[in-house]
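Hi W., the pyridoxal-5'-phosphate complex you wanted:
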Amino acid sequence: MKSDLSTKNFEESRHYLAGGVSSSLRSSMKPVPLFATSGKGPRLRDVDGNEYVDYLLAYGPLILGHCHPQLTKDLKSQMEKGYTYGLQHAEEIKLAKLLVDIIPSAERVTFSGSGTEAVMLALRLAKSFTKKSKVVRFHGHYHGWSDSIFTSFPSADMNNKYSSQGGNLTVPGTSGQSEKSLEDIIVLPWNNTEALEETLYARRNEIAAVITEPVMCNSGCILPKEGYLERMRELTEELGIILIFDEVITGFRLALGGAQERFKIKPDLTTMGKAIAGGIPLSAVGGRKDIMALIEEGKVNHLGTLNGNPIAAAAAISTISILSAQHGAVFDRMERTAVDLAEGLKNLLEKHEIKGVVNQIGPVFHLMFTNGDVVTSFDEFMASDTKAYQTFAEKMLSEGVLIRPNGLWYISTEHSNQDVKYTLEAADRALASLVKEYS
Ligand code: PLP
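Structure:
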């Protein structure tokens, strides 16, 4: 794989663009952060002329692949009418109606630009509604980079260390974030019903909200244990605590109505982003009428110059209409593709005698090299060999397959059986080379 021009561009970029990338995560790509030139369907091209089957999918949003013809047509049509008005418009109402229809728990919705903003708003609504201030979040989950919730996870082994009184396991996620910004945060191990029960009962008078990824997609694509989310719903309802599902990844991916449709659990508030508009920036908060009314009553401020702009709204309407065609048949197809890939990768791990786990649900899965038989907790996820995986990701790149160096794979509506075959053949060679390197 040639990367001369990406390397050259990166060097030039760093003279002008801080760090050479626009989001800190992107700088970790090896051998060098790639410079893309175009994409079509499931394929992406870079400046060096390499073509990749793309499972990064821009970190999730490209559920329809690159440049989907219908989405592009709808975007062009909206562009000729107007980019943004700072006023209300028909697409905004149309999209809001669609979401109220599609998202099981959304009686009202509102729009922003990023998942981070949606989470900020959901937390503000929950605190205002309950007149309490603490927020329970979970070890290994990610909810964006705002000061009020961004934490790092210094300890891999938390199950024995959580404290229902302390809640002081939070550590700022970045320099420049004051420790005080996390004073309201209580971090708990996920998938641990006992920790949740103990903490919520003990601190019910302080806790405004519990925020969770319904599937721990950001750390191992870990599924909730049987009954865990149900118990979380029951407890939060009983104790007057707002339950927030952060569906920025799972929304429009695990089902049109997200994880809440798939698991049949209704949170009080839902945050959405990424796939909602097929790659155009848009996020949303949806939720109970009585909570969302705080915005209408002017008690909770929700601001943003470009919120609900017609380009983003048109993109989301188009994306949702493509995803819902033929009663959402694309979701079954994407899931079959994901299962074929996941099963194929498991077989290859066996063939090359590499210990590993694939956690898959719908069109998303996490491949990890680990000695454990299962990965059902953040601690188990942290025990996986991330260095070897990064080397594997680099080898896949030179085989023409783009995957996230952290192990998460996204599938789009455009990945075909041929792409799966191509990918598995590439993985076979990459794993063989990995074994050679490590033996
Ligand atoms: N919530 C979850 C579950 C996410 O995975 C992310 C981003 O990866 C966010 C929130 C933040 O979204 P954004 O990057 O659009 O700000």
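Confidence is low (pLDDT under 50) at residues 156-160, 163-168.

W.
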